[in-house]
Each structure stands twice: as structure tokens, then as C-alpha cells.
Amino acid sequence: MQTSEAVPATVRAVRYDEFGPAEVLRVVDLPVPRVGPDEVLVKVRAAGVGGGEAPIRAGRLRRVMRTRPPAGVGNDFTGHVAAVGAEVRRLRVRDAVWGLMPHLTFGSTAEYVAVPERLVAPAPGTVDLVDAAALPSAGTTVLTALTEKAELRPGQRLLVRGGSGGVGTVAVQLGRSLGAHVTALASARNLAWVRDLGADEAVDYRGDAATRLAPFDVIVDTVGTDLPAVRRMLARRGRMVALAVDPGHLAANVLFLARGTLSPSRRVVAFSNNPGTERLVELTRYVEDGTLRPVVDTVFPMDRTAEAHRRIEAGGVRGKYVIDVARG
């Protein structure tokens, strides 16, 4: 194993030992992660806070997620390579990188993480590493959703439900760059702000304006509630990409998704984001050419991760919350 500096024996990380409210999150000392032959050890600069992490931490998704306490939080990260395994070929010690934890695992809110090389790519050189931490998970999810799952084409009508959130802000930007006519649903206070991101139209999610603007060729749903009603806004050959579930109605959501996936018209697509190196490299290109920019609401130090979770649950976030690991 090649290293750049003396790696500490223990590292600080955010963990929870039981399901519960945000207060179960605490900063603890853990052994430094071991690096496998195909893995890199990353000294983390910052980690994103995903909107789906709060219900997982609270135990509301325990029937469909394998995550069990004790567990960490955070799915994506930015930082610098501190060590590489013997089989690592693309990355070198001291490289500035971004990446994700292995599929359906968490723990990037820590001073060091060890992950397979395929889940790490050079970070864009045009944005700060703290801001960039808002993008690896949300960005790769949206890239897969719009280009692969929905096959969005120029001139089509795209509806982004939850247009001011972490995933929604990326969908608005990418949809516009792909030549779609973008309508975003958001709260009244965020409408002008979402238009500035690139939405052709922004309407209050609490009214029926979106219904009157229907039909849409593609719908990206980041909310998870009232999915049948949202699907009815699709054009007959439209595609709806469901990126969230309602923890309070899991059984109904699963049944709806199963039926919608099999439908020949107004098809529903659901997937669990599991990108590889190519998708991360593609995301880097989109950021460096100015197509996408990270949208960060607030940056928290690591010892205020619980506050970030409380605010996620309260709603109203613009873009993403980011944990600046280096700030403690």
C-alpha cells in the first residue's frame, strides 16, 4: 500500500447506535479503515447530506433497507487520496477526488473512508471541494435518470417535482442543458430562485398549476407522495422516474412502482443509484464545462450533523446541506 503521509490510527466519524431522531447522531473515534487491494483511502474534505438519510436513520425504511445500527451517515464525499491498494491503477496519492460509498452503504461523514477505486474519480478543478460534495450522489442519480432511464430528448417537456432540493436542482439544470422545456414544482418562496437555475416555468406545488400545464413527456419525482396523481400528468408515451418513496405508505408505493414498471404507457421507472467510474467522470465533465453547478444551502461542521438532519426533516432546503469534515 502506498501512502502520502502518516495516517492516524483512529479517525472521527458520525455514527448512530440505534434508530431514532437526529439526536442519536454523535461523533465517535473509530479505527482507520483498512484498504483492500482495489481500494483507495480518501482523506475526506466534505460529505453531502442526502434527503433520504433521515428516514433511514429513524428506522422508517428498515423493512426495505439493510442498514442497521451501529451505522454511519453520508453517501458521497470529496477529498484527497491518502493511500492506494496494490491493484489501484487510475488514481495516485494526493489526487483531489470525489466519489460514493458502496451501493446502499453509508459512512462518508468521517475523516477517512476506504472505497473501491471504481467509485472514485478526479474531482472537478473548477469548484471548491466543499461545494463539490453536494453533487456526487445527486448528480450521478440525475444523469442516469434523464439520459438512460427516461431518455430525455430535446424539445420534450420535463416536470421536476421537488425542484429546489438536492436532486431537483440538478434535474432542472441538466434537463435544460439537454434541450427540454423544464417545469419545476417548488414552494412559493423558491419559484424565482428555481427559474434562475434554468427552469422555464416554476409553479407552486400546493396548487393545481402543474396539472393544468400537463401533459409532460418525462417526470422526475423526488418527493414520493401521491404518485398515482403525479403519474396522471404524463403524456400517453411518457416516462416517470420515481426517485423517492413515502415511508408512511411503503406497501402502496412498492405496488404502484411494480405495476407502473410493467405498463406499456405512462411507464414508471425506479432504480437504486449505483454508478461506476464512467458516470462519475461524466459528471466531472458536466461541472467543468459549466453545465452543472453545485447548489449548497448550508455548510455544517461535523459536530453539527444532527442539526443538518433536523433541518432536512423540517423541509425548505435549497439544494443540499454539506458537512465540512475538516471543520470538526
Write a structural description.
Helix content is 27%, strand content 29%. The protein folds into two domains: 2-134 and 294-327, Medium-chain alcohol dehydrogenases, catalytic domain (Quinone Oxidoreductase, Chain A, domain 1, Alpha-Beta Complex), CATH 3.90.180; 137-270, NAD(P)-binding Rossmann-like Domain (Rossmann fold), CATH 3.40.50.720. It has ten helices and 17 strands. By secondary structure, it is of the alpha/beta class. It has helices at residues 53-58, 129-132, 136-149, 166-177, 191-197, 209-213, 227-231, 250-262, 277-288, 305-314, and strands spanning 2-3, 10-16, 26-31, 39-49, 71-72, 76-84, 96-100, 112-116, 120-122, 157-161, 181-186, 201-204, 216-221, 234-242, 267-270, 296-301, 320-324. 50% of the residues are buried. The longest helix has 14 residues, at 136-149. Strands 1, 4, 6, 7, 8, 9, 16 and 17 form an eight-stranded mixed beta sheet that branches. Strands 12-11-10-13-14-15 form a six-stranded parallel beta sheet. The two termini are 28 Å apart.
Topology readout:
Blueprint: E1 2-3, E2 10-16, E3 26-31, E4 39-49, H1 53-58, E5 71-72, E6 76-84, E7 96-100, E8 112-116, E9 120-122, H2 129-132, H3 136-149, E10 157-161, H4 166-177, E11 181-186, H5 191-197, E12 201-204, H6 209-213, E13 216-221, H7 227-231, E14 234-242, H8 250-262, E15 267-270, H9 277-288, E16 296-301, H10 305-314, E17 320-324
Parallel strand pairs: 10-11, 10-13, 11-12, 13-14, 14-15, 16-17
Antiparallel strand pairs: 1-6, 2-3, 2-5, 4-6, 4-8, 4-17, 6-7, 7-9
Helix pairs in contact: 3-4
